[in-house]
Amino acid sequence: MTSLEKVSGKKEMMAIMEQAKKDGKKHISFSEFDLFNKCGHKHLVFKHLALETEPPSIHLAFGDAIHASIERTIEDSLGLQNRIDFFRERFRKNMDDTMKGEPAYSEMDDFMGQGCNILSMIDFEALLRDYEVVAVEEPLYQHIYGNFYFKGFIDLVLKHKTTGRYLILDWKTSTVAWILKYKLADVVFLMQMKLYKYFWARKHDVNLSKIDVKYMVLNRLADKKNPKKGYGELQEVSMTSAQSEVRDALELVAKTIKSIHLDKKFPKAKFVLDEYGRIQNDKSGRPLVDDKPCMFCKLKGGKHPLCNSNIDQDQTLLAEHAAVPKMGK
Prior knowledge:
The protein is an alpha/beta fold. The protein has a single domain, classed as Lambda Exonuclease, Chain A, CATH 3.90.320. The chain is built from 11 helices and 7 strands. The protein has helices at 10-23, 30-38, 40-48, 58-76, 80-98, 108-121, 124-130, 180-183, 187-204, 243-263, 313-320, and strands at residues 7-8, 26-29, 131-145, 148-160, 166-174, 211-219, 234-239. Strands 1, 2, 3, 4, 5, 6 and 7 form a 7-stranded mixed β-sheet that branches. The longest helix has 21 residues, at 243-263. Residues 1-7 have low confidence and may be disordered.
């Protein structure tokens, strides 16, 4: 069994990535996998060819600061005040670096208070009373097939002091509590923890049956439409990961890699497919379109030069920008 000493993985991942580059390895992260399966064409434009970038976001700045504060708290046993001070400094720097001049910069103080509340709610002492820390931000770089690897970071791995069972935790910042019937219907999203569990178990030669997985949802607000109702609460969401579910996740990862690297096909989410994955047409023979998947995309509307109404635009873009893909950042 591989040693399960406490590790902090950013430096380890840097070394892994440097060697992987020398060896010509290719990888896919969960965020990339999730993006492709939501819209292959968006993956092509934003990741594979890197022709566009997402705009800066206060939510990303906030999420990074919360995650970094939790990581530092566990690694260095920070008390509450030091934890909050670290968060304030990190969040303000993130905002100054990426959001200065943006309208959302004016919301920084509100987010600051919400972040301090979240960090005050997490009872680290109670959490670590029953568990020992195995890993904080543990890197995964695990073989899938051929020259392809799965890349990721696991927020926190714990081992129960009495039962010896492992617990993989993923911190998720959210505006409000998850509505579980909708979240649990997102099959691709739910694959994240199944993949993390599988690859972590394989990395350390641990039986899957000895590993539990859980999301800790860190909610900023009690009510998004009425912020005056106050701060949100913590929400624990335990996940199942039956063997068949893990297999389905691995099969979709393999299929995604094949589409990206071998078939080089990047389908647009807005075209309606039938049960066999074929594009459906209306009575006049034109492709049926559903714009709901494009609601929050900066390329939406069908008139953007990087995302028009052409079904085969992915092939056009690949031909126009034939270069080494900027994959797996």
